[in-house]
Amino acid sequence: MTTSAKKILVLGATSGIAEATCRIWAAEGASLFLVARNQTKLEAVAADLKTRGAAYIDIAVADLDDTEQHPALLAHAINSLTGMDIAYLAHGILGDQTEAEREFATAEQILHTNFIAPVSMLTWLANYCVQRKAGTLAVISSVAGDRGRKSNYVYGSSKAGLSAFLGGLRNRVDREGVTVLTIKPGPTKTAMTAAMPGQSKMADVNSVAKTIAKAITAGKDTLYVPFQWQPIMFIIRNIPESIFKKLNL
Ligand SMILES: NC(=O)c1ccc[n+]([C@@H]2O[C@H](COP(=O)([O-])OP(=O)(O)OC[C@H]3O[C@@H](n4cnc5c(N)ncnc54)[C@H](OP(=O)(O)O)[C@@H]3O)[C@@H](O)[C@H]2O)c1
Predict the structure, then answer these.
(1) Are 155 and 105 a contacting pair, CB within 8 Å?
(2) Which keywords describe this protein according to UniProt (predicted)?
């Protein structure tokens, strides 16, 4: 599948990774429906993508935490695009791990935004795609979901839940002609990581986006990006718990 002239729904379109991916799709002449909660940022992204060659652009401002609005929002987006080939779910929050250790409400917010909200949208979108026996659901999870670590286990568990959900969903819908791609980026230079140390070791957002766009075109199931995170996480997943619990990760 090539993405040229494809109809793509982007949820969390102002995310650094999503915006960089959309620039690739715009240059290929794709039609894009962009959803984000910040109208000013969203309009700026949409205007930029139009100049880069997108065949069609429409936008909706929405807080994706509001799951009750999802069915109407998704139906409106697909109506505007007159169909949908790819849904790209990119929104998410890192949250404050220390605060989440003290306050359940903080942990709940991270779990809601990163896990419950995507599950709500994916339930609707998967049923839409199954009915048509076509479509790709490309979803950004994280390497952080591969094993809980003391430095970010609330965020990590939200992504672990999302990755597990995507694995099961793929197992259900693959036979119906629907592709589910689980995207697991390692640390990448975006607004989300701007305050973190080790910037020089983080991946470049444009190169991450390029790899994601290629994986969607290739119909892949899972993507670690950059690729070296696959063997790194294999090792981290296999460290015995008796050792792992003593590490500062
Ligand atoms: N950067 C990394 O190192 C990294 C690594 C692994 C996985 N990821 C994942 O990659 C995805 C994209 O993140 P990014 O790195 O591109 O960070 P980013 O630039 O901070 O993007 C996150 C986006 O999510 C949006 N968002 C958060 N809550 C929302 C809500 N309730 N409704 C609508 N939009 C909401 C934010 O909107 P506002 O701008 O309005 O806040 C922002 O546009 C996320 O799922 C993240 O968890 C990132």
Answers:
(1) no
(2) Oxidoreductase
